[in-house]
């Protein structure tokens, strides 16, 4: 869906994504709420706050374990100009532009404001990248209050706005509510409205729902709506998440087996296409070796992996990517260098 646009800073052509500037979960727990009666705190009445996060990031832990493969050669140079401003230069060399993206150069910039919400969160955050043809990706994230966060994302391709999205999140004491509008067009009266709600039932269980409403001349009947249910169960270092609607089922499992090893399993079933795929992934972190490896295998016969190795004392990171699809007899390999 279009609301996943925020999860990627660059295009979905395998370009390396920028490191996260701030965490997405728990932003609503900043500050201290007090009840106006008898000086009692809200926590003493409702209990301690629960950091439920957002419905958009429900499967985030599982997704982050899977490797983001790429093909060809990539060189990325990051340069911090100040504590709040950073620029990047990315050069991509692709052997098959039709499948793996167009070769070329992209310039990126990231600005982090001075509004500090926590030791690891500062707002606003503005980031984007552009190529010589003017194709632009832009993201803006701002913490308006202790509980309200706003986001904006846009993509410009071939001098036209190909995608745009605005959202507002409210982080309550034990719930999170979001409203999203995607690709609004006032000229032909089309767009998408999305509502998210995630409620913390207990410290381990959260339940929520998503409502998607689409309207416009291209939509059969002029309008369409779909509702899905979501749930999450956390026990120690293990997390189960799932969403279900009339179109299919999406289940995820994540476990931190040790300080060095993470495991993830994802199952997606599409009722309309009568198709189902299961994916197993793992991530190995070796801090002493300055190495991170992510691997995955799915039931469609795809095996993939990405290795990232810091070449200390040089300020370089070497990235190697490989993906083999046994059912299609296709093999893709990539090599990248990150400086800075």
UniProtKB/TrEMBL annotation:
CDD domains for this protein: Porin3_Tom40
Region (Disordered): 17-47
One Gene Ontology CC term in the entry: pore complex
Pfam family of the protein (one): Porin_3
GO molecular function, one term: protein transmembrane transporter activity
GO BP: protein import into mitochondrial matrix
Keywords from the UniProt entry: Ion transport, Membrane, Mitochondrion, Mitochondrion outer membrane, Porin, Protein transport, Transmembrane, Transmembrane beta strand, Transport
Gene3D superfamilies: Porin
Places the protein is found: Mitochondrion outer membrane
Domain of life (superkingdom): Eukaryota
Annotated membrane topology: Multi-pass membrane protein
Predominant localisation class: mitochondrion
Cross-referenced InterPro entries: Porin_dom_sf, Porin_Euk/Tom40, Tom40
UniProt similarity note: Belongs to the Tom40 family.
Name by which UniProt lists this protein: Putative translocase of outer mitochondrial membrane complex subunit tom40
